Amino acid sequence: MTDGASGVLLAVETRDGAIRETSKELFGLGRTLAGELGGPLGAVVLGSGVEAAAREAAALGADRVLVADAPELAAFTVDAYAKALDAAIDATQPRIVLLAGTTAGRDLAPFLAMRREAACLVDCVRLAWQDGAWVGTRPVYQGKLLTEVRAPGDGLTFATIHAGAVAAPEPDPGRISETTPLPLQFAPGEIRVTVTDLVQAPAGPTNLEQAEVVVVGGRGLGEAANFRLAEELAEVLGGAVGATRAVTDLGWRPHYEQVGQTGKTIAPKLYIGLGVSGAVQHTVGIRGSETIVAINRDPDAPIFKMADFGVVGDVHEIAPKLAAKLRAVRGA
Ligand SMILES: Cc1cc2nc3c(=O)[nH]c(=O)nc-3n(C[C@H](O)[C@H](O)[C@H](O)COP(=O)(O)OP(=O)(O)OC[C@H]3O[C@@H](n4cnc5c(N)ncnc54)[C@H](O)[C@@H]3O)c2cc1C
């Protein structure tokens, strides 16, 4: 253990000047672990133009906020973000660094752990401090099993937390924390990757991870134009449209709508699958759904094994009837 190391440091990602939802989720867990360690909860807010996000970090419970604000941090590159996080670790000497299980977090944690010869626990759905060691719980075999991973608590440890695994705490806007700018200088050529464009998924009802209702269309819809069936149902229910990988691979829908192992993990109140077979790589992303409804013409389709309600039939016939019925019930 590094002399004087204590507490927890959160790597806080921002988007458009605000803390990303997945990073907000780190604060509750961070507070609990800092309490168990008897150390402070630090947060390094990473991005460009992040003054408001730094205030948000204080409101969410950080004792000390480091502000890594630089144009080079506007978009994620491992070189720039690793430099900022490295500087924050030197400044705060934490025992553990928590990162969200985002693209950035999954890149940064092993990169810095390797550089600092530290332990790294990835994709944890739970993380606990037990008898002087870190114990993480993570899904394996596409979420079919959970496994426990341990890291000795006597050195610096990095951990990434699975999106949606822990709840974000309620912010206390009146809370004030010590806030310090983190000075960063980047040499020419130090950042080896240039981000030329960011393609943002449209906000609003298509925000799959937040939607209470998600209607996923599969290859069984037959062609891209038939996604109007999914759109109609989503519209009447105030939900979002998602897609299987078969569909995004065919170019019928954009990749950001993909749900599953290599897409988004969703946990809506209601999931409706239209012509979705229910391959494990898809269902691993929908396990958190409260109610699963499937329409498929094959009675042996695997999706029916996990569906709460299933309709065996042609989606082109059933989906419009369902939309019409719902519209009538809802008076829309
Ligand atoms: C490494 C890896 C990662 C992957 N990641 C993902 C992922 O993130 N997300 C994902 O979704 N997949 C993923 N996949 C792909 C996955 O294995 C499946 O191939 C995919 O989910 C199948 O999509 P689908 O259900 O739309 O298509 P299909 O498997 O082709 O199923 C279509 C279904 O529609 C039904 N159907 C056909 N016509 C009709 C009709 N008229 N009415 C009603 N039902 C009808 C059929 O009975 C069938 O069950 C991944 C695969 C690999 C190898």
3D architecture notes:
The protein is of the alpha/beta class. It has nine helices and 16 strands. Residues 218-220, 244-247, 258-263, 275-277, 279, 281-282, 285, 295-298, 301, 314-316 line the site of flavin-adenine dinucleotide.
Give a summary of the structure in a few sentences:
The protein has two domains: 8-181, Rossmann fold, CATH 3.40.50.620; 204-330, TPP-binding domain (Rossmann fold, 3-Layer(aba) Sandwich), CATH 3.40.50.1220. Helix content is 28%, strand content 27%. The protein contains nine helices and 16 strands.
List keywords for this structure.
five-stranded parallel beta sheet, 2 domains, Rossmann fold, binds flavin-adenine dinucleotide, 16 strands, single chain, 332 residues, 27% strand
Give the overall average pLDDT.
93
Sheet having the most strands: 8 strands, mixed
The CATH topology annotation of the largest domain reads as Rossmann fold
Poorly predicted ranges: none
How is the secondary structure organized here?
Blueprint: E1 8-15, E2 18-19, H1 21-37, E3 41-47, H2 51-59, E4 64-69, H3 78-92, E5 96-100, H4 103-116, E6 119-124, E7 126-130, E8 133-140, E9 145-152, E10 157-161, E11 178-181, E12 213-217, H5 228-237, E13 240-243, H6 245-249, E14 270-274, H7 280-283, E15 291-296, H8 303-306, E16 309-312, H9 315-330
Parallel strand pairs: 1-3, 1-5, 3-4, 4-11, 5-10, 6-10, 12-13, 12-14, 14-15, 15-16
Antiparallel strand pairs: 1-2, 7-8, 8-9
Bound molecules: flavin-adenine dinucleotide (FAD).
Residues 218-220, 244-247, 258-263, 275-277, 279, 281-282, 285, 295-298, 301, 314-316 line the site of flavin-adenine dinucleotide (FAD).
